[in-house]
Amino acid sequence: MTANTWKLQDAKAQFSEVVRRAKKGPPQEVTVHGKRAVAVVDLERFEVREKSTPSFRTMKDFIEASRKYRGCAEGIDFEQRVEMDISPRPIFAAEDET
How much is the pTM? Predict the structure, then answer.
């Protein structure tokens, strides 16, 4: 473990020290059962943001947001129902015995 990584039980027992180190230096990681779980950071030095959700909600929005395919969605009716035959087929066709 590195100097900025704490086991949960140690972080709980020395929480003031974890916070002090986070304010003065790098974020302090806390592990649970040996796996990285959370980090304690100084909010004055790090911007913490929620994960952003994609701005597109439909396939058309996705295509229009794409640099490669922008403009390709024009003329496509995304509301049109498309029937597809997805009946199961055997992977290996049995050979005809003749």
Answer: 0.50
